[in-house]
Amino acid sequence: MGAGLKRFARNRMALLGACVILIVVALTIMAPFLFPAGAFALVGPALQPPSARFWLGTDALGRDVAAGVAEGARTSLLIGMSAAMGAVVLGAVIGGLAGYCRGAVDIVLMRITEFFQTIPAFLLAMLLVVILSPSVLSVIIAITAVSWPGIARLVRGEFVALGGREFILASAGLGASGPRLVFVHLLPNCLSSIIAVGSLLVATAILLETGLAFLGLGDPNVMSWGLQISAGRVSLRAAWWVCTFPGIAILLTVLSINLVGDGLNEALNPRLRER
Amino acid sequence: MSDVVLTLDNLTIGLPKGADRAAAVSGLNLTLRAGEVTCLIGESGSGKSLAARAILGLLPPRVTVTGGAIAFDGQDLTRLTQKQLARIRGDRIGMIFQEPMTALNPLHSIGRQIGEVLAIHTAMGATARRARVEKLLADVHLPEPSRIARSYPHQLSGGQRQRAMIAMALALDPKLLIADEPTTALDVTTQAQILRLIHELQREHGTAVLFITHDFGVVADIADQVAVLRQGEMVESGPRDAVLNAPQHPYTKALLAAVPRLAVPVRPVEAQGLVVLESIGARKSYAAKGWFARGRATRALDGVDVQLHRGETLGLVGESGSGKSTLARAMTRLLAIDSGEIILNGESITQLTTKALRPYRQKIQMIFQDPYASLDPRQRIVDVIAEGPIIHGAVPAEARLRARDLLRLVGLDPSAAERFPHEFSGGQRQRIGIARALALQPEVLVADEPVSALDVSVQAQVLDLLADIKAKLGLSMLFVTHDLRVALQICDRIAVMQHGAIVELGTATAIFTAPRHPYTKALFAAVPGASWNQSIPAAAE
Predict the structure, then answer these.
(1) Each residue's pLDDT tens digit, B469-491
(2) Long-range Cβ contacts of A38-47 (<8 Å, 24+ apart)
(3) DSSP 8-state code for residue B31
(4) Cβ pair B339, B419 in contact under 8 A
(5) Mode of pairing for the β-strands spanning B64-72 and B4-14
(6) Do the Cβ atoms of A166 and B369 come within 8 Å?
(7) Residue B539 pLDDT
(8) ipTM surpasses cut 0.90
(9) Of B485, B495, B522, B513, which is closest to residue B215 (Cα–Cα)?
(10) The whole model's pTM is what?
């Protein structure tokens, strides 16, 4: 793992991405101190352009856009990380079961996975949020539900490939139980690919969340970038700043997570390392 | 004896920074003459393959010729552009690779691939090309050349594919043929045929051949000249008989001494012990799966009866697909059989569940073929070895302490315990694999080709270690190998397998001096360098 980190550090773009993510994380921590009034507070006149008092201007209701961006960062990261984590766990369990048990279990689980993959992800997420009624938790559940199939297929593939290797046979020959094979030998050996793909999932999860919030399907009591853009779209020509700054925040965050994910993939994946 | 075709003059091939040495090959001088076979022999990592690839300008990225010259046909090949080299490759220098399946394009028919060589380098018309391809395929003794020309690589056997490769390499009657371990991936009987073919064609066409190999038996069969390479430096060269029978350099002597003899060493005869492990009528077939491919099951085991007695080493010998590995895995219950019984110490273990089987697992342990795949890359050595005892209820701290003792037993330093598998060489890893198997204090060791992935000098060490440990701990051993020479060295009794059945079973001496089954006889006849091997006195060890 230490060697992997060193290889990661050699990738300049990935390092840059990591810096941007750190800044975003710092922003979420500092938000309550920078904007004690909160993102929903009406702090000034409506549609003020960026100025010394309101760095990023105010929206149609007189809310501070900067405060919204800072609080939205927390929502995006929270939902992105939790949904990606949920998808990784769910995907690993289903893929692991399919890859370890093979046979009928494999066939059934993989058909279910394919079923989920063929449904348009965004539509399914919308549907789930509507059914569960919009809240942070239901958004996380919805995004998890549409993101796990990729992880499941990855883990299954790795398990199948590793399952034929002699060290797994050797361990079985020592009398190792199923759980021991899975948790001591199989999972640690595909951990690096799971981490790499999982980190990219965070980016897609953030995009899905903004999309849902834009359509008004996010939690109405929580500020988010999607909600900001949605609120500012009617006044886009008169007040460009309301939509633009949350948009830049989304772009930078998603781009840097992708850069970090690619960097991790390159650093941890021995097949790409040769190039 | 005749004219020089190619000279390597002080050839040096540099490796990228961070490699284990600065140059893959340093200061290599070699002269290849028409009508002669020159064998370049060395262990893995000696730089023999890179030397061959340098001639064709096919070095991997970041590896370059840093000094010296390659004189061919009045030109220095190191100074030519890739375009100029491409005109020479295939036309005046032919090449055969180790693995014929990967060297052929699976999407094109054999005839089309050979025809391509002709189309690139000659002005022949399509009909002329087709006729020439069939003539070439007939020259390498492939049956029904026109049918073979229409076939795709996967429809041919390994030996047939290698013949097709040779036909392709010789299509334009090159002055030089480079063969990089062309028989290593083949079964021993096929290997003998291919060696004979190369020899015959080379005599007919007067081609110079650079033959790369790690096997002294092959050298004895085919070489005129021999060059021995160690870590990129040529330590000895000369005519075959001089190098093989009167080696000068200590390294050559050591390598030759490590070649397993085709002879049965004198062993004290012991009374046969009780049967410890037995297979009765074991059957296993692999069905062709899928909705469309029905039937055509492959029979890997066809009613095998075999008994392993306490304290003996029983060899399972056969070619690939003979079912020997399947039998070994079936007897360790790593593979379920379709019918029959596996009996350990008088108890049937055929139907036991994973849990019920665990106490019996302790008694049979397996050593695997591939030292690179048989250790978990993410486990420290101490955990690899201690895993078995911990599964069987040992106190982890004690198991780890014992792991260090075991490392000493297999000839490794106990400090190796804290390191990871990738820090060890193939031979060292195989020792770790043996330590893992011994950690459970088994009664039976099942070794599945434990030395076939190792260099010959390391092979001898690991075989000695196995024999030593077996005697010290009073184990019984089932030893799977494709190499009769190895089997004769280490086994008390030998079972010869073909098509999933045992065709002959007897003591090593009986099998060696009086083989009865025609297949056994064929195997002996095909051992590379058989006549040379028998001529070496056993006292040389």
Answers:
(1) 988 888 999 999 988 889 998 99
(2) A38/A67, A38/A71, A39/A63, A39/A64, A39/A67, A39/A68, A39/A70, A39/A71, A39/A72, A39/A223, A40/A223, A41/A67, A43/A67, A47/A235, A47/A238, A47/A239, A47/A242
(3) E
(4) no
(5) antiparallel
(6) yes
(7) 38
(8) no
(9) B485
(10) 0.82
Task: Tell whether the model's pLDDT for residue A85 goes beyond 90.
Answer: yes
B423 interface with A at CB cutoff 8 Å: no
The residue among B105, B161, B114, B162 whose CA lies nearest residue B135 is: B114
Whether A7 and chain B come into contact, CB under 8 Å, resolves to no
Residue A253 carries which side chain, given as an amino acid letter? T
**Residue in A closest to B363 by C-alpha:** A174
CATH class, B311-333+355-525 region: alpha beta
**CB proximity A273 to B under 8 Å:** no
In chain A, what are the domain boundaries? Answer: 2-26+66-273
Every domain range in chain B assigned CATH 3.40.50.300: 4-98+173-257, 311-333+355-525
Superfamily, domain B4-98+173-257: P-loop containing nucleotide triphosphate hydrolases (3.40.50.300)
Residues in B touching A184 (Cβ below 8 Å)? 379, 387
Closest CA to B315 of B450, B467, B508, B464: B508
- What is the Rg, in whole angstroms, of the alpha carbon atoms belonging to chain B? 25
Gap from A93 CA to chain B (nearest CA, Å): 21
Nearest residue in chain A measured CA to CA from B358:
A175
Contact B349, B342 (CB under 8 A): yes
Nearest to A185 among B354, B366, B376 (CB): B376
Q: Within 10 Å of residue B350's Cβ, how many Cβ atoms?
A: 18
Question: How many angstroms separate the CA of residue B440 from the nearest CA in chain A?
Answer: 8
Angstrom distances, CA of residue B278 to CA of A82, B270, B327, B341: 55, 20, 11, 8
If we measure between CA atoms, which residue out of B362, B369, B364, B406 comes closest to residue B384? B406
CATH code for the structural domain at A2-26+66-273: 1.10.3720.10
Would you say the C-alpha torsion B63, B67, B68, B70 has a positive or negative sign? positive
Helix (H) or strand (E) holding B342: strand B339-344
